[in-house]
Please model this.
Amino acid sequence: MNPMYMQKQIPIPGGIKITISRAFIPDQPYIKMFPLDEALLKGTLFPNLYIPYPIKSLE
Model:
């Protein structure tokens, strides 16, 4: 593994080291694509990556 891409820890005052974030990229099999106008509205070209956040009820 290339050390440039290995997980880095950020030193914090007091000598504590923490990891700030970690990326997760789901597998992306090429199946089909949204039409371009729909892809722009949904934020992705690939339907299998379209996972909208649930809408909260106002109740």
Q: What stands out?
A: The chain has one helix and two strands. Strands lie at 10-12, 16-18. The CA atoms of residues 9 and 18 lie 5 Å apart.
